[in-house]
Amino acid sequence: VNDAAPPADDGLGHHGDAELAPGLIDLAVNVRRREPPGWLRAELARTLTELAAYPDPRPAAGAVAARHGRRADEVLLTAGAAEAFVLIARALRPARAVVVHPQFTEPEAALRAAGHPVRRVLLSPADGFRLTAAAVPEEADLVFIGNPTNPTSVLHPSAAVAGLARPGRVLVVDEAFMDALPGEPESLAGASAVAGLLVIRSLTKTWGLAGLRIGYVLGAAALLAELRRAQPLWAVSTPALAAARACSSPRAVAEADALARSSQEDRAHLTGLLRAIPGVRMAGEQRAPFVLIHVRDGAEVRNELRRQGFAVRRGDTFPGLGPDWLRVAVRDPATSDAFAYSLRGILTEVQTCLRPSSTRSRPT
Ligand SMILES: Cc1ncc(COP(=O)(O)O)c(C=O)c1O
């Protein structure tokens, strides 16, 4: 556990989109499509004639509730998962908030912006970023964890995650990438019996809707009512609500599952290539539509990858990681082949370089 407060410019606000530049192949951002599928675009277009009316979240809440086997008052639609982090930080008054890292940085940023002290629990790569019951201090009254976790790509067992629930504690599980796993194993979205549990979901990754802003929180009605009070009126637009409704249909869920299956094959292809490259290490089983790799002289490797046309996500802005960690999005096999070819060449050059690692200059 690391109690040290990070410096003001600690990089929590850095995201993969900052790595992009014209001409680079994007392996940095985790949105999985270039655009929403045609049937979803048609649903969105249909709402254009309804825009004179204020948004009504009830049909979308009903559809999301049915998809997860919950009641409609156990669903809060939000402007992406990102809004959910802010609502939780603003609505609750945690005295001892804990964020389990490495993970997406916005939950901690939202807590800090709301003035809450944050304690970091760092899972260890030596342990495959495994979650242990003892990792989280007993006195924590708010715990944030991601599952599957960005950027580690590790999927924690649902029992281990649910085991973090305690009387008087709110347990927030960010499942933004759960729909990228076939069958959504280890999801707690339907676990209404776990006291104090809030599950956050996003529709922006799987459906190519990052620009629309749509996600939701699942939890006990009384707890969600607190978040609702902190949410601006009409925060989720009519097109975003239409997307939530459409993406919760059985047909859409089946489509997401099919995409998850093909992404799983694409990930196996990528990890197979990466494992065969001397000097590349992965910690823990990679389960998400991105992989986290460790290489020597990571900052130089990342810069050289950019020179060769690939943007990957730097790891050093994630608490618990450093510059030698790089996150790589799973794309089609041809893109992975080209990436692995470049990476192998770069690492061969770095490793055959005469200077030892400790004396090499490290660009910041
Ligand atoms: C783990 C995780 N949670 C939440 C988000 C934010 O999702 P949204 O676009 O729904 O706000 C991201 C975006 O990168 C993410 O990686």
Structural class: alpha/beta
* Element-by-element helix/strand order: EHHEHEHEEHEEEHHHEHEEH
DSSP helix fraction: 25-40%
Strand order of the largest sheet: 2-8-7-6-5-3-4
Calculate Rg over CA atoms.
21 Å
Number of strands: 11
- Shape type: globular
% residues in beta strands: 5-15%
Euclidean distance between termini CA atoms: 26 Å
Bound molecules: pyridoxal-5'-phosphate
Give the overall pLDDT as a whole number: 93
| Unreliable residue stretches | 1-8, 358-364
**Oligomeric state:** single chain
User: What kind of sheet is the major sheet?
Assistant: 7 strands, mixed
Give a summary of the structure in a few sentences:
The protein contains ten helices and eleven strands.
Task: Describe this structure as you would to a colleague.
The protein has 364 residues and is an alpha/beta fold. It contains 10 helices and 11 strands. The protein has a 7-stranded mixed β-sheet with strand order 2-8-7-6-5-3-4, with helices on both faces. Strands 1-10-11-9 form a 4-stranded mixed β-sheet, with helices on one face. The two termini are 26 Å apart. It binds pyridoxal-5'-phosphate. Pyridoxal-5'-phosphate binds at residues 30, 80-82, 104, 146, 150, 174, 176, 202, 204, 210, 215. Residues 30, 80-82, 104, 146, 150, 174, 176, 202, 204, 210, 215 line the site of pyridoxal-5'-phosphate.
